[in-house]
Write a structure and sequence with these properties.
Structural class: alpha/beta
Helix content: 25-40%
Largest sheet: 5 strands, parallel
Radius of gyration: 16 Å
CATH topology: Rossmann fold
Strand order of the largest sheet: 3-2-1-6-7
Number of helices: 7
Shape: globular
Order of helices and strands: EHHEHHEEEHEHHE
Strand content: 15-25%
């Protein structure tokens, strides 16, 4: 049995709702969501990940494959044959940062909204694949995440360069 952590952008792309993603990327994302359904998904115990899915996908399970995936996740969230819920600990004073997220200067700029995925992957001890479609943050920080044991599968490498550098922060005047 394989374990997966799925970034929300995979379901969004599967639905055809990411204009930067091409048809090949969409097809790969649909296949990846089917692969997750045959294995196990990891969620956080407080359901922050599911909450993000609920904001971006349709719980009715229609009209797209990403919506069908959300409906499946919602239905199996308490079924240990398909889902494992992992306890992660918010850092004091930071709702989008977690004790399980590596304290590493090279990850300082990693998107706070995506830290829950990393925290779940690391806290699980299951060495899951983190699925990403088009979110460039995963590419920008890939080598640092890998150094900490986070395995990212880039479903659409044509849209995310693993070796790209993070964008420079603009200085405020």
């Amino acid at each position: 049995m394989k374990y997966f952590v799925v970034d929300t952008n995979v379901g969004v792309v599967a639905n055809g709702a990411a204009p930067q993603a091409d048809e090949e990327c969409r097809d790969v994302c649909i296949g990846a969501l089917e692969r997750v359904r045959r294995n196990r998904i990891l969620l956080d115990e407080e359901l922050r990940i599911l909450g993000e899915y609920l904001q971006r996908l349709n719980l009715a399970g229609q009209p797209g494959p990403g919506d069908a995936f959300l409906k499946w996740v919602f239905e199996v969230q308490a079924d240990t044959r398909h889902c494992e819920r992992i306890e992660i600990t918010p850092r004091e004073g930071a709702e989008d940062d977690f004790e399980e997220f590596p304290q590493d200067e090279s990850l300082k700029g990693f998107d706070p909204a995506d830290r829950k995925f990393v925290a779940v992957a690391l806290a699980s001890g299951r060495h899951p694949l983190v699925l990403n479609a088009v979110d460039s943050d995963w590419g920008h920080y890939h080598s640092s995440l890998k150094r900490h044991g986070v395995q990212v599968e880039f479903l659409c490498p044509q849209h995310v360069s693993e070796n790209s550098k993070p964008p420079r922060k603009r200085r405020r005047k």
